[in-house]
Amino acid sequence: MEPTTTEAVLPAKRPKFLTVLCILSFVGIGISLVSGIISYFSYSALASAGGLLNGIGAGVKDGEKIGESMNALASAMGMDYGKWALVSLIQAILNIPILVGVLMMWKQKKVGFYIYTPFEIIQPAMPIIFGLGLVGGLSAILSLIFAIVFVVLYALNLKHMNGGAKSEAALTPGQKQNPAAASKNGSFYEIRVGNVTCIPVGATYKVGMTVTAKKFVTDSKTGKVKEEMINDEIQIGMVKDGKEIYLKSYKFTKTSTLLNLTLNQKPDKIGVDPYNKLPEKV
Hints:
Strand content: 25-35%
Radius of gyration: 31 Å
Order of helices and strands: EHHHHHEEEEEEEE
Structural class: alpha+beta
C-alpha cells in the first residue's frame, strides 16, 4: 500500500501485566516517599543526638569519650546519621521523576521507560554513592535487586508502548495531490479518520472509526471554493507488518460517518484513500 492521504495508528490496549506493574510502582512510590521523609527527620534527630553526646562530659563521667566511641562505631558500620538523612531526602525527591516515568508508561508512552529506568537504578544506589559502609551497601544491594527486576519487567512491555503518541488515533498527513491536478472537475476533498478502536472478539477484531469527509468545488467563473454535500466512494485500507490486509470502497454521503468493521487480523494502521485517488484540499 502506498503512502496514505490520512493515516491512523491504532491505539493498543494496555495489557493487564503492564497495568499491574504500574499499580505496584504507584504503591511503592507512595511508601518510598513517606518513608524517605520520615527517615530524613529521624536521622537528622539522631545526628543531633550524637553531637550532644560529645558535649555531655561535664555532666556524665567520660561522657565525651562515650559519645565519641558511639559515633566512631556507628560510622564504621556505615551509620553516619548526617549522611543517611541526606540520602533519605534525595531518595524521597527521586520519587518524582520515577512517578513521571510510571505515569507515562501507564499511558503506554515508551519515553516513560527511559525516564523511569535511570532514576529507579540511582535511587537505591545512593547509600553506595555516599559511602555508607556495610549497612549502606547491603541496603543498596537488596533494593537494587528489586529495582532491576522492575526495570526488566517494564522492558518486556516496551512492545506495548508507543513512541509518545496520543492514546487515541494519531493522524499523519501523507501524500496529497496538488489542487491544480483536479482542475478538470474542480473537486477537492478533506478526509480524516479518528476515534479508532480495536477490540478483540474471539478470533476476530472489531475495528471502529469515525471518518470525516468533506467535498469542495471551485466555481469555474469566479474561482471561489465552496463546500457541497459529499456523495462519493472512498477506499478504506488497513496494514499489518507493512502488508495490506484490507481494502474496500465505501459510499460516503455524510460529513461524519461511523464505521464498524470485522477483521481476522489486528491491523497496525488504517488508511483512508490509501492510493490517493481523490485530490485533497490543501
